[in-house]
Amino acid sequence: MNPDATTGALTAPVGDIAATGLGGAAAPDMSIMGLFLQADWVVKLVVILLLLASFWSWAIIIDKLRRLRRVQVQADQFEEAFWSGNSIDDLYDRIQARPDHPMALVFVAAMREWRRATERLAAPGAALATGLQERISKVMRVALNRELDGLERYLGFLATVGSTAPFVGLFGTVWGIMNSFSSIAISKNTSLSVVAPGIAEALFATALGLVAAIPAVIAYNKLSSDVGRFQGRLEGFADEFSAILSRQVDERRS
Q1: Which DSSP state fits 28?
Q2: How many domains does the chain fold into?
């Protein structure tokens, strides 16, 4: 008998057994997509909800940052024109058709009320002057609040995502761990290869909840602070412009 043939006959089954024992059982896919595909339907639903919340949060964040930067630049340009010493009537005639930022809208609202009143009565009395100032203050306040509402829109969604996303992710984690324990009870196997995939799926939900929540919380705090500062700037301009119109009322009375 050929010794080589005998050796091959003995070693070949050993190689087959090793391949079956080590490589025959497919290792679980621990990639992000693999974890998602292997997860329970409840965990999948949690992951989808968190992904949607994260994408929508980032869309809001990018839009608000761009809009706040734009209105700040427009406010700088408007204040430069307003305090340049030129006539405010000329400024009004130039922008009243298309006021395209909050400060201009507040200015146009006040000037529109001012012109409406002064065109009707050439010489308003003291009582009328007081009423006119009150009406101007009110229309500026209404315009200011309307513009602030637009800037603050959807910030509440960021606050909601920041406060609830970790708990939604935690729910997915608890559900995934429950499934892992059920798998252990059914298979009666406590090896790491049985437990690890389920635990990884569960922890993935928690990680995704934090990924959605952390940027939302940071952006909400920053955007709220920026809107608050811009609100103070608008209110300061409204007070200054109200004082200017009040002086003009007094001049018309004298």
Answers
A1: P
A2: 1
| Contact status, residue 79 vs residue 234, Cβ threshold 8 Å | no
| 29-50 exposure pattern, b = at least 16 Cβ within 10 A, e = fewer | eeeeeebbebbbeebbebbebb
Q: What is the 3-state secondary structure (H, E, C) of 177-223?
A: HHHHHHHHHHHCCCCHHHHHHHHHHHHHHHHHHHHHHHHHHHHHHHH
CA torsion angle 215 216 218 223 (round to 10): 130
pLDDT tens track for 202-245: 788 899 999 999 999 999 999 999 999 999 999 999 999 988 88
Q: Is residue 16 in some structural domain?
A: no
Judge whether 22 lies within some domain.
Answer: no
Sign of the CA dihedral running 185, 188, 190, 195: negative
Q: pTM of the prediction?
A: 0.76
